[in-house]
Amino acid sequence: METNSLKKSISVKTTVNKAWNELSQINKLSWLEEQTSTKLLSTKNRGVGAVRMISFKDGSNVEEHIVGWMPKKYFSYIATSGLPVDVYHATISISKNENSINIIWESYFSSHGTKSEFMEFTKFLSQFYSRSLLNLKNLLEK
């Protein structure tokens, strides 16, 4: 079994409230790289127990379940289908600096696939996080 973790962060000149207002809308992900649509699969649209399906330009669909939620601080989710890994758990959090905030996206994932496939996914995910966080920064600093 292959396991790895990944952590990316970006400094954004905005408020915690503005960032949380964008991030907590879990079915509105205009900042997410290559995303074409996101729909809710649950009656909950926020908080633990909310479920979403994210569709991407490459035709893949990823189902995610919110498993942790602390308003204006973080939310955590697991992917239950659509990724080439057996386990995927991620957290997006916000921390305040003096004149800006940091948005941190970190995850843990594992797979029984081949090492080369796993390393390819890790590289892809790292670039995906970086590009998506930059999109989010550009959106929030408008």
Question: Any idea what the CATH superfamily is called?
Answer: START domain
Helical proportion, percent range: 10-25%
Helices, by number, come to 2
- CA-based gyration radius: 15 Å
Spatial order of the strands forming the largest sheet: 1-7-6-5-4-3-2
CATH class category label:
Alpha Beta
Number of strands: 7
Helix and strand content put the structural class at alpha+beta
Based on the model shown, name its key terms:
142 residues; alpha+beta; 24% helix
Structure description:
It is a single chain. By secondary structure, the chain is of the alpha+beta class. The protein has one domain: START domain (Alpha-D-Glucose-1,6-Bisphosphate, Chain A, domain 4), CATH 3.30.530.20. Helices cover 24% and strands 44% of the residues. It contains 2 helices and 7 strands; from the N terminus they run βαββββββα. The protein has helices at residues 16-23, 115-140, and strands at 2-12, 35-40, 51-56, 61-70, 74-81, 87-96, 101-111. The protein has a 7-stranded antiparallel β-sheet. A hairpin with a 4-residue loop joins strand 3 and strand 4 (61-70). It starts with a strand and ends with a helix. The mean pLDDT is 97.
